[in-house]
Amino acid sequence: MSRVPAALTALAMALLLCSGAALAKKKAVAGAEPNTQVPAGNRHYAATGFPDRLVASPAQDAARGFSVAWRTDTSVQAPVLEWVLAGDSPDVGTPTRITATTQALTTELGASHHHRADVTGLQPDTLYLWRVQGQNTWSAWNQLRTAGRADQPLTLLYFGDTQNKNLSHVSRVMRAGLKAAPDARLSLFAGDLVSGGDGQDDSEWGEWFAAAGWLPQETAVAPAIGNHEYFEEFEDTPQERRVLGRHWPVTFALPRNGVDAADTSTYWFDYQGVRIAVLDGTSALDLGTAQAQAAWLDKVLADNPHPWSIVLLHQPFYSPREGRQNTELRDVLLPVVRRHQVDLVLQGHDHTYGRRGEGQGATPQFVVSVAGPKQYRLSDEARTSMAPVGEDTQLFQVLKIDPGHLRYEARTVTGRLYDGFELTRSADGRKRKTELTQGRIAPRDCTRAQTLKGRADRCWE
Fold this sequence. Notes:
Layout: H1 3-31, E1 52-58, E2 66-72, E3 80-85, E4 96-99, E5 101-107, E6 110-119, E7 127-132, E8 142-145, E9 154-159, H2 166-180, E10 186-189, H3 201-212, H4 215-218, E11 220-223, E12 230-234, E13 240-244, H5 248-251, E14 267-270, E15 274-278, H6 281-286, H7 290-302, E16 308-312, H8 327-339, E17 344-347, E18 353-356, E19 365-368, E20 375-376, H9 380-385, E21 389-390, E22 395-402, E23 405-412, E24 417-425, E25 431-435, E26 458-460
Parallel strand pairs: 9-10, 10-11, 15-16, 16-17, 17-19
Antiparallel strand pairs: 1-2, 2-6, 3-4, 3-7, 5-6, 7-8, 9-22, 12-13, 14-15, 18-19, 18-21, 20-26, 22-23, 23-24, 24-25
């Protein structure tokens, strides 16, 4: 036999193997679940005259007010919000009316109007009814209780990244959180609520609100911004630049008290004995605002009259994922966190679970968590510097706080205790940490070699 046919045979076999591998990869990708349940070209989440995407957020003084954002189509120009004391009768009486401000937004689903109304002058620890207007129609009446006094016990929820497959997978995490903490008044989100940037971000926001159900109407929602709430753009050079996504400034009615350099994505508020400061890690890392945010955070924490403090941001100070250092956060912002002895730093971004303290002190406690189905792998460093850690696990967190105690529980989507500790504050302000070990399940690892799309650096897409 000549060498030419043999070579041709080898080439044919190689092509066959390559085509088989390509086919196998194509089948694997085809088996991966899409990011949303919306078929291509479908306008299910387009705005109409009916108000949707209702979300309440805390005022700077959450005992005295809250703000509401909602969406309609462009037929609604200057709608009103009505509020009244909640009662047991369907006769709500004569409500107070507030005319909203309106901003236009055009997306792949068409034009829409986003509205904001600020409710002020309320009483602490009081249940209110509120509803918002559409085109010749109204939303449901929603109940929201203002924050109580600083000496009253508080329950709140904290969720890591939701990001993708919100309707199919994240919805059960939010429901599990509400079932575990039906008395929660506040919900914190650590950024990357949607994936964005793929031409379907309006549908993604629609699915986030569908997944959240009535949580955004009857708890006050305070989100941090994530990198996926920004867009990546390239100009005349290959240099990438971050651009704030158009949804973020109009989707939430957040306190307007942030640093000038990131005025729509940083803010702070007081909620029942806790001062909560929200940072923009993407702006700090990629847009050069770390120094400005550090100076702002220093002032916010310096005059904190409350026994507890929480910092919420997307990118972690200590990353549990390989290859992510976030050096500027540690060099510029972490000294402020340490100086003011912040109790909890709640973070997302790395799609794993990890907790660590610093030295022998009880605080700060740094937590990274994930609510959504996108799951990464832990670094070797995280396994030696954090405890507990976890992969392949959707989680929610319940915090119960009173003047002398802060109890933290991380639970899996099925309700099992994954992590827990309690901070105890003595009369002189000193804090002690006690681990909650009873009933805690063993740390979880990813057992699959790669994702359905063939990625070995992740557990799930």
